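# step 3/5: fold
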Amino acid sequence: MENCDGGEKMISFNFDYYRPNTIEEAIKAYEKATGEGKSVIYFSGGTEIISLSRAKQIHFNAVIDIKSIPECNVYELKSGNLEIGAAVSLTKICDYNKFPLMSSVCRRIAEHTARNMITLGGNIFGRIPYKEALLPLILTDSTGVIAGKNGISTKPLSDIFSTDPLLQGEEFLVKVTINNDYIGLPYYHAKKTKQEKIDYPLITIASIKTKEKLRIAFSGLCSHPFKVVSDLNDNARNVMSNIARPIVNDILGSAEYRRFVTNNVLTEMYERYGGVN
């Protein structure tokens, strides 16, 4: 454990810093810090933590950095599945490119320098609601390997992110597991922003085409990422009419404008797949 001068980290307060080498050490560090009455966060990339701390939107007494845990850094095909560690950066996901849809989505998140720091775990468990790296994962029924005081467990990511992430305080994501059967399927990805290419999304859509269905995942349209399953001969209008969630209305775009943009993107998607529109 180290005591960090927040000023050196661009954070205006001091905190204890732990960099465990194993999952067990990380859980013990969490229990030690919370046992001392300290508020604790897990850390992998840190871009969001630093910016929110500088803006005085979050405060913590201890940080547990998971980047030295080997299981959090894997990127490999194993037993027919692709495993990606929570501490793997978005840049590395793009460069390794074993899952082209995942690479396409990650390549449009932030700019290159930021992607060098932003990690898979940081993107999907951060406070920013878009969580675009989650889209290929919920499309492919991927699972998360979760570490906690009771050991290692595996949970469907769609369950964890049904609303807000459903993890206990000491739990953290170790890695995700993606079924290799989905990785080579035809896919579509589009991101629309208000002005600049690098910006939060008005709407991001990712989809994969199976033999009988289209799986479509959305970010930016509603408060949380979600997926729908559509027939190959369906159309944009039907998909939009079946979305029961409230459409986001904020400074990036009104609900009506988001609906308009999403309908156009879905129409293009169906045309790309050769379906009706």
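# step 4/5: annotate
The two ends are 58 Å apart (CA to CA).
# step 5/5: archive (pending)
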